[in-house]
Amino acid sequence: MPEEEEIEILIERAKRRLDAAYHLFEDGFFEDAVSRAYYSMYFVAKALLLKKDITVKTHKGLLSKFGLEFVNEGVVEEYYGRALRIAEELREEADYSISREITKEDAESIIEDAEKFLERIKRAIRELKLRH
Length: 132
What we know:
Elements: H1 3-26, H2 30-51, H3 59-71, H4 78-96, H5 104-131
Helix pairs in contact: 1-2, 1-5, 2-3, 2-4, 2-5, 3-4, 4-5
């Protein structure tokens, strides 16, 4: 599959995960909303990495490469690296922890970050296209 097509598929997946997060949030499924919001960020970050021919196999690998290639290099602001890291940590708690309750406020915060993240990373992808 051509790289550009794969990037578009990943962006579409990111949008769909964010849409799912909104619906889950509205229905009071805060843990699932957090998970979907994180996966929205995950897929669009993966698309940006692919733009530089970088593939990762793990969530930790994605966080590491995103930070090294895009935050440390000044392609995107530090806020986005931090937002991705926080979302991944909260997603793990939402999916696996029995001692941590995910609140409405937790979910709302991650969804807001995911909205900003999606738009900023889509812009970074466009900017990288212009350079190549």
